[in-house]
Amino acid sequence: MTVEEQAAAPAETGSAKLTVGSVFCASTLNSGRVLAMAAAAAAPGSTDPVDLVLAQQLAAERPDIPAVNVAAEDVDPARIDRRYSLTRVRNLQRPAQKGHRDVVVMRGDLASVLKEVKIGREERAVVIKNADLSSRRGNRALAVADALVDENDHVGPFQLHGFIELRPTAAGNFADDVAASPDSWARVNVWSASLRLQHWANVLLIFTLSLTGYFIMDPFFGPSATDNAQQAGYLMGWVRVIHFTAAFLWLLVGIARVVSALRSRDRYLRWPMLWPLKKKEDFKHLGEVLGHYAFLSDETPLYLAHNPLQQLGYTGMYVAGFFQMIAGFALYGMASMNTSWFWGLVSSPIVWFGVGPVRVFHAMMMFLIWMFVIMHIYLAIRADSLERHGGISSMINGGVWIRRGSKPIDAPKIG
Hints:
disordered N terminus; Calcium-transporting ATPase, cytoplasmic domain N; 415 residues; three-stranded antiparallel beta sheet; alpha+beta; 2 domains; 9 strands; six-stranded antiparallel beta sheet; elongated
């Protein structure tokens, strides 16, 4: 039985109570507005546990949003053959719209609602992955969508705004996406554990590869070339083993990042985020960020995750890392290029350009990567000092601090 079907059934004495968990936002509406829309879909005087807990949560979290009363004839409850309710809410005011408009709120089973709304394939995949994780924790996803009603009572296309976790009280209390702050700041979880693990693995592996790679290029300690083999020992051999091992581990980290870009439930890890310049406003924001970094302006557009310049830099690093791996494995495969078709394919750049140019390219890419690392460290410290969002610590604990009421460009309004 779905959440809406449970809502249509009488509440049984002694049944498990419900609580509202995290609110996942799939549009420009923030969590408070999504919660308010879900609460507005309740029938007048409803004693259903779902309606009651939504109203209580809205009153506790967002007392600034008034409760909406609807007429009984405007409520079309869920049915067995239609696992969502339809409620006409009259004269509803939304932050992004001027004046009041009538809307039809669709609330119910996520899979059923997704069949009725207009949503892109990428956004649909992110919503489904987040809902799957919620269901594995024993929670139910109550989807919320709406459609505008025009002057001729014609209902427009439905837009999904997100879903609300409904949890039985006995199931445990999981941390919400936005942890309450005792003052005017809110801590928002942004970076997943998998991304943070990949970040620090990259730090360790790039440092190891650079140190050992520079030694292979120009041995700066240990026995000299004039020493005999017994004096020289196996130092270069151990350095090469460490270098090759780190290279294969770096390849695994790269594969993990590609997989997360295609399959992650976190929209900040998905592949569309790799190119942040999708519309005219993005180029404008990029110029504003460049002006701020060049000390030409005090203000900068607020982003919850990466601003356009940061994301372009990280995307550039992914591209640089890809070509660095091609060059490195081409050099590694030279010894086996005539004995295996696979290593022959991997070592194709050696055949095309020669050993010398590939080695020079491999070394130059190392210096380019370290130029990025140095700039990245400087800008991270600078951003933490000026913006005070906790960007550096976010790569340890996953969260940033944002002032309540702020509206990031890449996220709903905070608070």
